[in-house]
Input
Amino acid sequence: MRTRIKICGLTSPEEAAFLPSNQVDYAGMVLFYPKSRRNITIEKAREIMEVLPPEIKKTAVTVSPTSEQVKLIEEAGFDVLQIHGHLAEEIPEEADIPIIRAVNVKGRVPVIESYPWIFAYLFDAAAPGSGKSFDWSCLAHISAQGRKFILAGGLHPFNVGEAIRQVHPWMVDVSSGVEYDDKQGKDPVKIQAFIEAVKEADEKSS
Ligand SMILES: O=C(O)c1ccccc1N[C@@H]1O[C@H](COP(=O)(O)O)[C@@H](O)[C@H]1O
Output
């Protein structure tokens, strides 16, 4: 089966135009998290979503969101909600879009909440969006349970093939690894190299 691809941390419509709809499945935008250099406003997110083709699922990336923020995200037209940090009890009841539950792995085997309404789990390094990786071997038991999960954290065109070989994620997620070295923003050459590396890994494993 083809490994899905998510490109995260878009900050402009120009970057959105770099994503080929037949190869990229999800696009992420960081909202309501001013600590991130990729944080954007809802207005900017709307501009970006106008450029993205309908086949690419628009993902709102959040940390401990409030009900009001989830409402604004849904009104803006996002398809999916990615939640890092605290997940308030009322959010799953109130949210009308699927939830990706992010787990920031802090050095040991992650414990996951097995709520039936969770669409997918996303395993990331301890600090989200840091470009740092973690020990993928701690995901072996999750892989073995056949659960749908997303691998994130420090992926780039040169390690994503090995990541796919080791943990067989349903989707791989990248942000820092497809950004320019010397300036802010996504690099279309690195995005294409990432897509090619995923394709190559899938071909080898089929
Ligand atoms: O990108 C951020 O700054 C960010 C902020 C808050 C929550 C999540 C964030 N990014 C997520 O981190 C992973 C991996 O990123 P990277 O490839 O290691 O840079 C990805 O899911 C981003 O959505």
Observations:
- The chain has one domain: 4-205.
